[in-house]
C-alpha cells in the first residue's frame, strides 16, 4: 500500500484530504494527516471579533469533524521532515514514511521578530487580530478605549489576507462612528507598500475609500523597531509614527520544520512551481496553501481554487503522467468597508483587479471594485460556505482560473 502524508489539517490540508477521499482508491492508498492543534479556526472571522460582530462559536470547530473517517488524523507536533529519506518524525516518537508528502502547514505571526513589539506592552497598548487570542484581547481593549491615535501597521509582506489591515481600519471608522466617538480617533495605516494595495487599480480605489473615511496612509514604511514606552514605531529610514494604540500585523512566517528541511526561503515558505505546487527540490513533495512561496495572496480563496485544479493534476501525476501547469494564481477577496458594504476584487498572477461583474459575466450579482451592500452580504455568506461546502470537500461551481469575461480594462492616471 502506498502512503500519502499531509502535514497540517487547516484549510488547505482539510480540503485536499476530502478530495483524496473521493478520488483515490483507499484500498491502495493510506492517507495520514498530522496536526498538533485539534481546533480548526475560521481565520476570516478574526477581522470582525474586535468590534463584537463575530463570536468565537462561529470561528472554532473541532478538526476531526471535517476529516474523512477513512483517513488517519494524528494529533502531534512535527519534529522534522527528512525529504531525502521520505519520512517525517513526530514529537511523540512516531516516524511516518511516505511515497508522497503534502505540506500544508500554513503560516503564523512572529511579533518577536521585531524589536520592541512583543515586550511588556504586548496585549496592552500593542495588539493584533491575526489570531484568536489577539482578536479577543483587542475586543476587550476597544470596549474601554477612550480614543486617540490608532495605528495599524504591517511589518513585512507577505501576510495572510493582505486586505485585512484595511478592512480593520474601515470597520474601525464605522464602529467608532456608531459609538459617537469618531472625532476622538485618528486612524493611520502604516504599510511597506507604496499605496493601499499591491495592485495599482485596486490600490487607487481602496485608497480613495480610505481617504473619504479620513484614514491616513503612511506608505513605504518599513518598520525597524517599536519603542513601546515612547509609543512609537520607527522605520529603517528613521521615520517615526506615534500611536496611542498600535494594531500590528507582525512578520508572517511558515513553519520552522519547512525551513529546517531545506524546503523554504528565509521566511520558511517553500519553493514550488507556482502553477503545479510541486517542490522545486523534491519530485514527491507538494506544498499547498499559505505554506508555499508563490506570488499570490495567502488567502482561503487561493487554497480553494488551487486545490480544485491540484486534485486532478495529482491524480495524473501518480499515474505516471506529466503535471499540467494550469493554476494561474486566481484569488478573489471581499473587502469589508463598514456601514454594511464591501468591495470585491478578483485577480491572478498576471492580471490585476478590474471593474466588472462576478461570477456571471454581465450579470453578477457581485460588482467588482464597487462598494456595495451585496458584496458585504457575500462576505458574510462565505462563512457558511466555508464550513459546509469547502471544508467538506464539496465543489463550488466556479471556474478555478480567472475569467476575463465581464471585466473592463481601465488605466490608472
Look up the CATH topology of the largest domain: FAD/NAD(P)-binding domain
What would the average pLDDT be, to the nearest integer? 96
Number of domains: 3
Estimate the global geometry from the Cα principal axes. globular
User: Percentage of helical residues?
Assistant: 10-25%
Number of helices: 7
How would you characterize the overall build of this protein?
This protein is α/β, with parallel strands linked by helices and 413 residues long. The chain folds into three domains: 2-108 and 253-318, FAD/NAD(P)-binding domain; 110-250, FAD/NAD(P)-binding domain, CATH 3.50.50.60; 331-392, no CATH class. Helix content is 23%, strand content 26%. It is built from seven helices and 24 strands. It has a five-stranded parallel sheet, covered by helices on one side. Strands 11-18-12-13-14 form a five-stranded parallel sheet. It has a three-stranded antiparallel sheet with strand order 6-7-8. Helix 1 (11-23) packs parallel to helix 6. The longest helix has 19 residues, at 300-318. The N and C termini lie far apart (60 Å). 45% of the residues are buried. The mean pLDDT is 96.
Amino acid at each position: 500500500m502506498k502512503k500519502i502524508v499531509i502535514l497540517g489539517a487547516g484549510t488547505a490540508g482539510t480540503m485536499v484530504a476530502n478530495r483524496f477521499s473521493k478520488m483515490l482508491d483507499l484500498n491502495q492508498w493510506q492517507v495520514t494527516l498530522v496536526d498538533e492543534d485539534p481546533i480548526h479556526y475560521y481565520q476570516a472571522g478574526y477581522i470582525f471579533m474586535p468590534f463584537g460582530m463575530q463570536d468565537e462559536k462561529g470561528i472554532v470547530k473541532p478538526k476531526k469533524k471535517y476529516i474523512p473517517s477513512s483517513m488517519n488524523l494524528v494529533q502531534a507536533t512535527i519534529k522534522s521532515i527528512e525529504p531525502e529519506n521520505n519520512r517525517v518524525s513526530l514529537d511523540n516518537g512516531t516516524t511516518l514514511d511516505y511515497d508522497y508528502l503534502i505540506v500544508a502547514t500554513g503560516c503564523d505571526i512572529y511579533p518577536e521578530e521585531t524589536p520592541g513589539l512583543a515586550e511588556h506592552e504586548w496585549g496592552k497598548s500593542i495588539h493584533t487580530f491575526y489570531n484568536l487570542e489577539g482578536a479577543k484581547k483587542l475586543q476587550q481593549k476597544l470596549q474601554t478605549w477612550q480614543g486617540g491615535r490608532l495605528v495599524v501597521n504591517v511589518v513585512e509582506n507577505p501576510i495572510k489576507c493582505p486586505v485585512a489591515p484595511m478592512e480593520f481600519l474601515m470597520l474601525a471608522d464605522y464602529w467608532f462612528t456608531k459609538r459617537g466617538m469618531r472625532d476622538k480617533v485618528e486612524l493611520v495605516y502604516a504599510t511597506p507598500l507604496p499605496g493601499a494595495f499591491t495592485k495599482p487599480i485596486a490600490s487607487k480605489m481602496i485608497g480613495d475609500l480610505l481617504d473619504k473615511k479620513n484614514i491616513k496612509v503612511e506608505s513605504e514604511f518599513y518598520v525597524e523597531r517599536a519603542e513601546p514606552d515612547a509609543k512609537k514605531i520607527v522605520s529603517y529610514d528613521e521615520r517615526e509614527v506615534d500611536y496611542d494604540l498600535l494594531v500590528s500585523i507582525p512578520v508572517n512566517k511558515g513553519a520552522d520544520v519547512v525551513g529546517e528541511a531545506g524546503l523554504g526561503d528565509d521566511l520558511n515558505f517553500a519553493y514550488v512551481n507556482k502553477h503545479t505546487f510541486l517542490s522545486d527540490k523534491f519530485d514527491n513533495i507538494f506544498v499547498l496553501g499559505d505554506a508555499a512561496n508563490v506570488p499570490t495572496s495567502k488567502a482561503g480563496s487561493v487554497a480553494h481554487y488551487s486545490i480544485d485544479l491540484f486534485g486532478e493534476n495529482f491524480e495524473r501525476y501518480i499515474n505516471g503522467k506529466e503535471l499540467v501547469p494550469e493554476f494561474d494564481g486566481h484569488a478573489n477577496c471581499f473587502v469589508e468597508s463598514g456601514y454594511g458594504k464591501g468591495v470585491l476584487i478578483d485577480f491572478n498572477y498576471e492580471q490585476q483587479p478590474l471593474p466588472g461583474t462576478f461570477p456571471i459575466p454581465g450579470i453578477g450579482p457581485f460588482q467588482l471594485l464597487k462598494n456595495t451592500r451585496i458584496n458585504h452580504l457575500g462576505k458574510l455568506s462565505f462563512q457558511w460556505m466555508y464550513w459546509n461546502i469547502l471544508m467538506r470537500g464539496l465543489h463550488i461551481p466556479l471556474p478555478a482560473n480567472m475569467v476575463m469575461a465581464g471585466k473592463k480594462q481601465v488605466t490608472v492616471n
